[in-house]
Amino acid sequence: MLTHLLDPGANQLCPLYLLTPKLLQSWLPQIAEPMATSITANRFTAKKGQSLAIFTPNGQKLVLAGLGSQPTTADIGTLPDVLGEERYCLHFAPGDLDRTGLALGWLLGCYRYERFQRNKSKLPFLLVAGADTKTALAQAEAICLARDLINTPANELGPVALEQAIRDLAKPFAAKITSVVGDELLQQNYPMIHAVGRAAEQPPRLVHLVWGEDTDPAISLVGKGVIFDTGGLNIKTGAYMKLMKKDMGGAANALALAHLIMQAGLPVYLNVWIPIVDNAIAGNAYRPSDILPSRAGMSVEVDNTDAEGRLILADALSRAIEDEPELLIDFATLTGAARTALGPELAPFYTASDQWADRLLAAAKTAGDPVWQMPLWPGYDSLLDSDIADICHTASSSMAGSVTAALFLQRFVGDTAWIHFDIYGWSLKQRPGQPIGGAAQGPLAVFTMLRDVYGK
């Protein structure tokens, strides 16, 4: 996929024109009559996803492609499906569309998850003059890392394999990796990570990636790594279990952000904590009504074993704040309530910091990575009260489920500046540059924010 963006030295390329309906209408009177006739006869209107090959009077082939009436750089991602296996140069595009953004949109439109298919897609190649190709490639590589991890089924991406994927990410950047595995989690005081994952064939673990100089501002990331969620003893029905390979989407998105930070060489001290479990069922599985100790010292009443993500995150967040980071960010495919509130395409986030919220919202617009701030409403905090423990991990009301999950996690971050993402991590429909399947939600927005704040 990343090879489908051509270098400036490429030759023998077919000119590609990206048009809106308005631009097409202004262009038609200026071109040779046979070309205009061909466009009209073939009913090319520059609708998004349309393409048409025409020829100049001297026989040169041109390809026209439609972007629709309100184009974005992502819309170029519709074209790899329709242009065929050919080599193109971007000859014209609306002037307000950033060339680096177009290059990124093209690369994401070329993404395919075909690891288990014998027949691979044959896709076109494109030269985008004026684009920062290095930036586009780095961003595409990070996004596709998240997509690949989420799309990989759990029989291929268990706890061991996900740890190896983190080690593979770390190696080219000389980042340091350590892991705490199995019963060692109890010895090092991560009891809730151990409880959630202990019933699985592959033991639970907490993987830690460290990169950068410890004299730089400290940024910590946490990603929920539930490689498959049966629901535990509160078992899911088949329809709700079908997509649960994506329940490590928080880890995938945290790793995509880590990739962006390291690739750009941002002057930050990066710590990434990935708790990895398989929420399986066995005789030693944790149960509803269990009381679990936590790293933070609080006792936690388990109400529903299908709300396992917040338990492993709580231990990981507790460890992350011990390093006193300037900013702590977690990503998690945490609640269905977030989907009810905002749907699958918009990434909800929570923070008590107006300053970081404003920075993130502005960066998201710049990056074209949509996010939406949700309220940490203190009035719902009492819904987490327990009669027999310090806190219950789910609320006594089914309402505002995403908010109460965030309020539970807030108990474990102290006064640390903190942003929590409750993402879906999956695209239910094909969109420009985004096929059905694993989705990166938030990494580009957060990276843009961090680059604006900490970039040299």
UniProtKB/TrEMBL annotation:
One of the GO biological process terms: proteolysis
Record keywords: Aminopeptidase, Hydrolase, Protease
Pfam family, one: Peptidase_M17_N_1
Keyword Hydrolase among UniProt keywords: yes
Entry's EC annotation: 3.4.11.23
InterPro entries recorded: Leucine_aapep/pepB, Macro_dom-like, Peptidase_M17_C, Peptidase_M17_N_1
Xref: PROSITE patterns: CYTOSOL_AP
Record's signal peptide: none
Domain spans labelled Cytosol aminopeptidase: 304-311
UniProt keyword Hydrolase, yes or no: yes
GO MF entries: manganese ion binding; metalloaminopeptidase activity
The protein's enzyme class: hydrolase
GO CC, any one term: cytoplasm
The family this protein is said to belong to: Belongs to the peptidase M17 family.
Protein name: Peptidase B
